[in-house]
């Protein structure tokens, strides 16, 4: 039996015959005899035990010098409708330097900073180079992107989306550059590469090399300077991740784009794929332990992508927001980056302001404590002097959202004030601040008419809706904190809720005339609309009066509630496969039950409880006077539990049970 001789690595990976010489004739003909390498143990398969040791971080001395791409495991994911190719994540050694990020006054380095440093010590970090397993892992990702994404059509979709004047709220100025970089990276996929290496491996190696380099754009140059620095010859993993975050946003906001999808299900599948690739690029970037501004941009936009994909109740989205906040603190952006500049003039302060407003609003929506404490970032603007010709853009939306987030945080602080007189005094001060800020807005920033009568461009209309909803929400929270019994809302709170809800419903009906200005319409309806609808439902149950000067009638509120039920049930506004459908459908079931009872019978009080009835405890023991929706809650949120509890009101308890399918609960 002839002896089986191994092939060299270049011949083996290119699947060509090898004459087994050292170097072989093919490598000599290619002009790369130094690349002609042979594995030490070419015919011995790696045992599972050894693979497990590698995953735990043990070194393997029998690895080849230039190992081939591992055979991936293929599985079909029925939930995603995609064939997923997976490989084991490689381990990597500890970095040769610490990357502690921002170190404050109480850190271990404070005292050493008072000791003079040797002038010969440059203080620069050593250059990091990725190992072979990391490069191979990146090459697998490049192969997957090339296999599942038609890059040319994806770039066309992103360009079409931003041509309408919309973009990512924070990383928008970089997206055109990111699209050019992505086009350049994958246009080189089919080009010739050095012998023995696949195009994906060459691309991965280049991306790792560039991503390991420090950023050269300083604070004063700003993001516009980055567009020139990070061109096609400085491609980084972060830039690919930002492109796929933009692709996810463009897909989400473009109902049909025939080169890539025609149905809503296909649209969702592409959005999932884009978010998945953005996740992988972010994971690789973070694994380098080189936290920087570009990674922060990618983390923020990746959080927004997950919020749109998984919904505002998703723990994945909540965790992604926590990662953004952790990076902000690690980079020290809770401190003023440049005290000589006005607040929010620096890109880094804009990033912190957006994360701060997002943390405040998401925490309110979910009824959880915010993770950014205002006392650690006193520079956040509570007041701002607007210029008369201020431009309606994402920067203005960030500025106003941050101002309102500070006011909302102060309104929430009233929850811990026990003295009612002191609570009222503080609430009046916050209200005056909110009204002062609203009056200081330029006239073209305020929606003074109905949305239908507004003739502004779509993105400006959406901006005006967000601006007014943010302002009304501050007053909503103030009056909510002052209620002695929230189950019986006062006329001022009901009037504010009715105005918020009416604006949210009008936005749904005119959604084709709105464009993304920083927050999605789904978020506006779920965050502002459901909170307002909850108070309206409580007021209808209690027959609470409405402020006489509010201009809102009971008939208008009932009409708006009917519209919400109709657009959710018919799928005009939201589809069953969309992330917030379970929340909205649960709320509309309760609202529909309430409306049916209001329109079919009088709101009569239950029959008096007899002595016999009191002997058997049960739901009949609960009366409208004793029922309390927030008995076991401290933060007054209007998430799904609110609607489940509202459905147990004695006035609605006789309604036949209407349940959601198990998969949506």
UniProtKB/TrEMBL annotation:
Keywords: Nucleus. One of its GO terms (cellular component) is nucleus. One of its GO terms (molecular function) is zinc ion binding. Residues 58-79 are annotated as: Disordered. Residues 7-38 form the Zn(2)-C6 fungal-type domain. Its main location: nucleus. CDD domains: fungal_TF_MHR, GAL4. The keyword Protein transport does not apply. It is found in: Nucleus. InterPro entries: Sec_Metabolite_Reg, Zn2-C6_fun-type_DNA-bd_sf, Zn2Cys6_DnaBD. This is Zn(2)-C6 fungal-type domain-containing protein. It comes from Karstenula rhodostoma CBS 690.94.
């Amino acid at each position: 039996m002839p002896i089986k001789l191994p092939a060299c690595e270049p011949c083996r990976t290119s699947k060509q015959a090898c004459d087994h010489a050292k170097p072989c004739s093919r490598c000599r003909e290619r002009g790369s005899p130094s690349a002609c390498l042979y594995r030490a143990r070419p015919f011995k398969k790696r045992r599972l035990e050894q693979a497990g040791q590698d995953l735990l971080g043990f070194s393997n001395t029998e690895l080849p010098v230039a190992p081939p791409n591992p055979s991936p495991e293929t599985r079909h994911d029925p939930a995603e409708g995609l064939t997923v190719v997976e490989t084991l994540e490689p381990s990597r050694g500890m970095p040769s330097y610490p990357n502690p990020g921002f170190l404050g006054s109480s850190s271990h380095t404070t005292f050493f900073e008072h000791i003079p440093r040797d002038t010969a010590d440059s203080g620069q970090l050593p250059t990091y180079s990725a190992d072979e397993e990391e490069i191979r892992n990146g090459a697998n990702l490049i192969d997957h992107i090339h296999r599942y994404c038609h890059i040319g059509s994806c770039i066309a979709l992103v360009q079409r989306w931003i041509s309408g004047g919309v973009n990512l709220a924070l990383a928008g100025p970089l997206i055109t550059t990111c699209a050019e970089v992505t086009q350049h990276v994958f246009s080189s996929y089919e080009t010739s590469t050095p012998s023995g290496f696949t195009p994906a491996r060459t691309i991965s190696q280049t991306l790792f090399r560039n991503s390991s380099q420090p950023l050269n754009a300083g604070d004063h140059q700003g993001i516009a300077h980055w567009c020139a620095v990070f061109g096609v010859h400085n491609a980084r993993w972060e830039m690919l991740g930002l492109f796929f975050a933009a692709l996810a946003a463009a897909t989400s906001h473009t109902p049909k784009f025939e080169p890539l999808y025609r149905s809503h299900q296909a649209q969702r599948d592409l959005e999932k794929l884009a978010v998945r690739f953005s996740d992988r690029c972010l994971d690789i970037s973070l694994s380098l332990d080189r936290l920087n501004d570009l990674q922060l941009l990618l983390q923020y936009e990746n959080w927004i992508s997950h919020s749109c994909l998984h919904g505002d109740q998703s723990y994945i989205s909540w965790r992604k927001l926590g990662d953004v906040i952790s990076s902000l603190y690690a980079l020290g952006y809770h401190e003023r980056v440049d005290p000589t500049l006005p607040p929010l003039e620096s890109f880094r302060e804009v990033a912190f302001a957006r994360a701060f407003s997002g943390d405040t609003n998401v925490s309110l929506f979910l009824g959880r404590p915010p993770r950014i404490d205002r006392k650690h970032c006193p520079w956040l603007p509570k007041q701002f002097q607007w210029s008369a010709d201020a431009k309606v853009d994402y920067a203005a939306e960030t500025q106003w959202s941050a101002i309102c987030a500070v006011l909302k945080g102060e309104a929430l602080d009233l929850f811990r004030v026990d003295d009612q007189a002191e609570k009222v005094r503080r609430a009046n001060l916050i209200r005056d601040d909110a009204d002062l800020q609203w009056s200081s807005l330029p006239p073209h920033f305020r929606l003074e008419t109905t949305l239908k009568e507004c003739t502004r461009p779509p993105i400006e209309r959406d901006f005006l809706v967000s601006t007014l909803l943010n302002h009304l929400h501050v007053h909503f929270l103030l009056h909510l904190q002052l209620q002695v019994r929230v189950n019986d809302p006062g006329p001022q709170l009901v009037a504010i809720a009715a105005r918020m809800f009416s604006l949210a419903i009008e936005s749904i009906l005119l959604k084709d005339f709105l464009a993304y200005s920083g927050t999605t319409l789904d978020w506006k309806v779920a965050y502002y609309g459901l909170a307002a609808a909850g108070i309206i439902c409580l007021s209808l149950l209690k027959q609470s009066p409405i402020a006489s000067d509010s201009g809102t009638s009971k008939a208008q509120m009932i009409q708006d509630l009917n519209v919400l039920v109709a657009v959710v049930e018919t799928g005009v506004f939201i589809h069953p496969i969309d992330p917030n459908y379970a929340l909205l459908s649960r709320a509309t079931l309760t609202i529909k039950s309430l409306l049916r009872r209001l329109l079919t019978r009088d709101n009569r009080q239950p029959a008096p409880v007899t002595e016999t009835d009191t002997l058997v405890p049960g739901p009949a023991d609960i009366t409208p006077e004793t029922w309390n929706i927030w008995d076991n809650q401290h933060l007054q949120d209007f998430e799904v539990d609110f609607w489940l509890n509202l459905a147990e009101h004695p006035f609605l308890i006789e309604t036949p049970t209407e349940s959601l399918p198990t998969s949506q609960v």
